[in-house]
């Protein structure tokens, strides 16, 4: 099948595949809301709530690691089809869950499905795109992630007080979306880039995309530096983003003298700000100015937490911090990480690398969340100093590596003969 027809439908591929981000955010927020309802309905102990919540988070990390590798080994299409089936099964178990055990099993399946889907779906988008729209299409996944949160929040506000039926509606929403996405994905053929790389590898053709397929290749030149840099960049900046999202309201209410309502009023306008930022990122993601925007975003992200370190925590400084983080994050966080990752690795390592980067970031965030309350005992300033350090280190890793790289085109260069294979053959 020629590549041209799939590339002509690249926006369709981007929407259908990018819904992985919608389902990811809807699953996280929906499970969190529903768990409160299930705790009362099933009389779950506090430790059981913690275990169920942790099971989802850790399963997403494990799923990304496994799914990314499977996507490179067996193809994009079978994996992103199987993940939607897994999500539907998970949702069905959660809707009917009669006990803590089934809730936990559902959480694990949901986490594995959504986690495994992310790296494979991103690779599918990148390989259906062209050099002119790849960043834009990958950036669309960020918008869909926000949409998932908004839709789930609205839905929870409507059905959240209905008790168990409300939780079932929230889970059903995820299942229905997954079913529709599954139908849409059945219209998407296997990635042409992956099929060509697989066929060349089977035939013993010594191209870069055929030869560079082993996990250990990620830790060897020329991939080790961008791989480790992206892993550090995302893990460290995600520590900041996850802490702000998970504990932000708690911090400003407990230590900043705000009410829950005031905290919500601050968070609400950040959604359109983030959306506008992501739209702007899509506009510049494939152009020569994207690194300039990354640098501006990086400064804003660092200053966002430094504001509270210098001026202390109050409703005003918290609002300023949130605004700076929303704008800066659009250009110097997950969106650019996805683009750099897809552009930095050949086809048979692409989703493996993406899955590993996402997985390490999720594991790190889960670990910090466990000790964040203990850090807060030492003072809010201590936490925000730590978050500032995380931002500086993570963004510095990305800046140091990618400032010397023009917009790379690994999609063009990977068809070339593998110089390592050539040198080995010459020596023989």
TrEMBL record:
Chain ranges passing through the membrane: 12-38, 44-67, 79-96, 102-125, 137-158, 170-188, 223-241, 247-280, 292-312, 318-336, 356-376, 382-402
Membrane among keywords: yes
GO MF annotation: an example: carboxylic acid transmembrane transporter activity
Topology with respect to the bilayer: Multi-pass membrane protein
Record-annotated Major facilitator superfamily (MFS) profile domain positions: 10-406
GO cellular component terms given for this protein: plasma membrane
Database matches in InterPro entries: MFS, MFS_dom, MFS_trans_sf
Keyword terms, alphabetized: Membrane, Transmembrane, Transmembrane helix
Location of this chain's protein in the cell: Cell membrane
PANTHER family for this protein: CARBOXYLIC ACID TRANSPORTER PROTEIN HOMOLOG
Name of the protein in question: MFS transporter
